[in-house]
Design goal:
767 residues, 4-stranded antiparallel beta sheet, 3-stranded antiparallel beta sheet, flat, disordered N terminus
């Protein structure tokens, strides 16, 4: 109830409805009690706030502002309203005494008064958002933190006595979380400020077993995983390591791994009696596995390990997983099949020690062989074709690569230009070109998006020699093409078979990536031709002002408002008079306008004796009222337009006077600013999609063009797509391009996206 009264009270002081409507008489009669207000507020004069006329409230409020005396005490004196009490705070608390006398216009005084208030005293304002444990810590502190401490970011004082458990109540109280949860955050910040190690502070007392979610049983002096004791020797060694030893540099891997073999680390079991290794009760016979399993873990960490010792007696075939059949004198695969490929046999027979030491000749191995032989392909001399098993190889790049002589490649390197000779970029990317249809396909789907087509039609050789300019390709692409639209020869854009008529979409579609990536690009041009009605969705049921502005371009919104009369906003209208064929007598006026602006119809009939007035904006004559002033020198403004309501009744009295006020001439009441400062929520409800969904409904009407420009240019690409503002047909390709980036293209603004895409394409060109 208190906040509602406060909002009502301030609204009466600062509102402008009465100024516009002119309902002064109503304001003099209506009181807060008229609206059901029932408070016990009484001012210094003993008058109840509930029984004060609204006009008095407004006059007294304006006087406080004009006298530069708007403070909490002056408001209470004038109206009996205790603003601190309304906020749910303890008004009797001495901390607020200084604040009560501060003039709200005195920024320095207000800041100083607010700064000394304790944070614990402001806790009621937060409605439980701050845990009671934090508030209690503030209250119990020997030096309770104040608002100044918070604004000056004195976290040592603000967080003093506060634990992580108080900030995050749901944190566990066991294991490593329990250790961290009990730390004093104020002490933590102080430690950081003095150059302390944050990790060491938080992890003091924690061991790796805590990180592994084990529980240490103090009674049995053992680690437990759930209900089961931890028995793995290596795991127990690791679990006992204190995290602070690691962070402080006191940890020694060699000490931890003493007497541990690599086989144990790999999960194997060693039988001391038979001196054999087992993997889940299955004896290990593979020579490489056995050699690795017997390595002492400390040999790997202290530098004493010798690779030659490991590979002594091993052949390359052993490492490749082959098994040598001593009886047959052949290598066999794991399935028992004989290895017959000559190159594979040569390599399998190599000594691993010789191979690692370089004591062999590669030339002897590869002489007379092609890359296709190494890849396991078969060349048919009769047909001159390569085969992969029974299947003929048709891929151009694979054929070109298979034809390369191994010795030539070894001596001269691999010539990329030769490999991609006669190919297009599309061939490299796995697309298929149908020469009959002159179309590219990705699997069964035709490739239609312009960016991809322009790229895949380039010669693959241009990639090899670096002549392919990805940036120029991207710069010439129009946004409409990226959105999946098609532009015909007449410059019309289509979404499938449907012509696109939405002005904003057309403006965006017609711009190229190059234009949008320019540093000085004016995003206001995207709003050219876009009307208020198109953007808002004005209907016959929309408010009058929205219907009046429906055909106005967004960029002319303020100009259009300045041309309007208050009558237009109040759903009144003027009656147009066609003066063709009518006889008139023209009034002499002193206004510096063209002559014959004000006239009186003398023609006998319906309009006889009727005054008319010319509107220089609409270029039309409208019915006017005769001048009611007692003077002989007239101006245009002496003859008010006659307004009618929607039922055809004349507006009279103050309604017609207010209706004749031009928005652009309301200097005294600053009506133009007030209308332009109205939030969009006055015109439409929150939008779930479309460009308006990007804009806060609190945005003022005057800021709409800038807000639209800012929203479109700064919104993430994903947001623009989700809200139906743009459509990307090549999203999957973009996901693949950005898959290794820290920031997804969907999180980028349209400018960042364009710059990033151009940069990526340019980097591919350079590489």
């Amino acid at each position: 109830m208190g906040r509602r009264i406060l909002a009502f009270f301030l609204g009466m002081i600062f509102g402008w409805i009465i100024l516009v409507g002119g309902v002064v008489l109503a304001a003099a009669i209506i009181k807060p009690s008229t609206f059901g207000a029932n408070t016990d507020y009484v001012n210094d004069a003993g008058k109840s706030f509930d029984d004060m006329p609204l006009l008095d409230i407004i006059i007294d409020g304006v006087k406080l502002i004009n006298d530069n005396n708007l403070s909490i005490n002056s408001v209470k004196s004038a109206f009996g309203v205790d603003l601190i009490d309304l906020l749910g705070l303890d008004s009797q608390n001495q901390e607020f005494d200084e604040l009560k006398n501060v003039n709200f216009a005195d920024q320095n005084g207000l800041k100083a008064a607010l700064g000394g208030i304790k944070l614990s005293s402001l806790a009621p304002l937060l409605n439980g958002a701050i845990n009671d444990e934090i508030v209690t810590a503030w209250k119990n502190s020997s030096e309770p933190p104040t608002l100044n401490d918070l604004t000056s970011f004195n976290m040592t004082k603000v967080l003093g006595g506060v634990t992580l458990k108080a900030v995050v109540p749901q944190i566990k109280t066991t294991g490593i979380e329990g250790i961290i949860a009990s730390k004093d955050l104020g002490t933590f910040v102080a430690s950081l400020n003095s150059g302390g190690n944050a990790v060491s502070f938080l992890l003091d007392g924690a061991r790796i077993g805590d990180v592994m979610n084990f529980t240490y049983d103090e009674n049995s002096d053992a680690w437990v995983n759930g209900d089961a004791p931890v028995t793995d020797n290596l795991v127990l060694i690791v679990a006992d390591v204190e995290l602070s030893d690691i962070t402080d540099g006191g940890f020694s891997v060699n000490t931890m791994l003493k007497d541990v073999k690599v086989g144990e680390m790999m999960g194997y079991d060693f039988d001391e009696q038979t001196q054999k290794w087992f993997d889940e009760q299955k004896e290990i016979t593979d020579k490489v596995q056995l050699a690795i399993a017997n390595i002492k873990a400390t040999q790997l960490t202290d530098g004493s390990f010798s690779l030659n010792t490991l590979t002594n007696g091993l052949k390359t075939g052993d490492v490749l997983g082959f098994v040598y059949d001593e009886g047959a004198g052949t290598w066999k695969t794991g399935s028992g099949a004989a290895v017959t490929d000559a190159l594979t046999v040569k390599i399998a027979d190599l000594s691993m020690t010789e191979l690692l030491n370089g004591d062999f000749s590669v030339n002897d191995v590869i002489d007379g062989m092609k890359i296709g032989d190494v890849m396991g392909y078969t060349f048919d001399e009769e047909s001159g074709k390569w085969f992969d098993g029974e299947a003929e190889i048709t891929d151009k790049m694979t054929i070109n690569l298979a034809e390369r002589d191994l010795m030539t490649v070894k001596d001269n390197g691999l010539d990329l230009a030769e490999i991609v000779k006669g190919m297009k970029v599309g061939d490299l990317m796995g697309y298929t070109f149908n020469a009959t249809q002159n179309k590219w396909y990705n699997g069964e789907s035709e490739v239609t998006d312009t960016l991809t087509l322009k790229l895949i039609n380039k010669d693959a050789a241009s990639l090899a020699d670096g002549s392919l300019d990805f940036a120029s390709i991207a710069r010439d692409i129009k946004m409409g093409e990226l959105m999946g639209y098609v532009c015909d020869d007449d410059g019309k854009w289509f979404d499938g078979e449907t012509e696109i008529t939405d002005r904003l979409t057309l403006n965006i579609a017609s711009k190229t990536l190059g234009e949008l990536s320019e540093a000085n690009f004016d995003f206001d041009v995207l709003l050219e031709g876009v009307t208020f009605g198109e953007l808002i969705g004005v209907t016959a049921h929309s408010p009058v002002i929205m219907q009046k502005l429906a055909d106005t371009e967004i960029t002319r919104l303020e100009e259009k408002l300045n041309e309007m009369y208050i009558g237009d906003l109040l759903d009144y209208h003027r009656r147009e008079i066609d003066v063709v064929g009518l006889q008139l007598t023209w009034e002499t006026v002193t206004t510096d306008n063209e002559s014959n602006n004000i006239g009186k119809i003398t023609t006998t009939g319906e309009y006889q004796g009727l005054y008319i007035r010319y509107d220089t904006i609409t270029k039309k004559f409208y019915e006017a009222q005769s001048c009611k002033a007692d003077h002989t020198q007239h101006t245009d403004e002496c003859f008010d337009y006659q307004y009618y309501d929607k039922n055809g009744n004349k507006a009279d009295g103050i309604n017609n006077i207010v209706s004749n006020l031009s928005v652009s001439n309301l200097d005294s009441s600053d009506l133009t600013d007030k209308i332009m400062n109205l939030p969009l929520s006055e015109f439409y409800q929150s939008q779930q999609s479309g460009v308006l969904s990007l804009i806060d409904t609190d945005t003022s009407l005057s800021n709409l063009p800038a807000a639209l420009t800012d929203a479109v240019s700064n919104a993430a690409m994903g947001t623009l797509i989700e809200n139906g503002i743009i459509e990307i047909q090549c999203a999957e390709q973009l996901d693949a391009i950005y898959q290794n980036d820290e920031k997804s293209w969907r999180e980028m603004s349209i400018t960042e996206f364009v710059d990033s895409l151009v940069s990526k394409l340019a980097s591919v060109s350079v590489s």
